[in-house]
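Our preliminary data section would be incomplete without showing what the modeling component actually yields. Below, a chain of 136 amino acids is followed by its predicted structure, encoded as tokens that our downstream tools consume directly.
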Amino acid sequence: MILIPETEYELSAIRAQGAGGQNVNKVSSAIHLRFDIQASTLSDWLKERLMHLKDNRITAEGVLVLKAQQYRTQEANKKDAIARLHEIVSAANQVKPTRYATRPSYGSKQRRLESKTQRGQIKRMRGKIASDKNEH
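Predicted structure:
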């Protein structure tokens, strides 16, 4: 896990949106976290990965802005914002293995075609039964 020093991100309290009654207008319980990717002490490789994320929380200047307002207390929202920042950075740090194209096996092709044939037979049996007009 990558540790980000507290000096690299800026926390500010703002008023939360949504329900809360009369208290919502008095208490600034939501937290805005601003993290300047380019000015951080992260490796250049990781900075580049973060900048190329298709995330609308990252501004054109390279500042990641997170808004935490899930909890009623400012302290809980601070912890949530910091945890989410660490999750984003950790996710960008992981490299997924290269996927190689494979072809379906002969057996899997045969099983697929057999199931299609059976399904078609079931559907054919649903039709009206052809009756001779001379029976009556």
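Residues 74-93 form the longest helix (20 residues). The domain at 6-93 is CATH 3.30.160.20 (Double Stranded RNA Binding Domain). Preliminary results of this kind motivate Aim 1 of the renewal.
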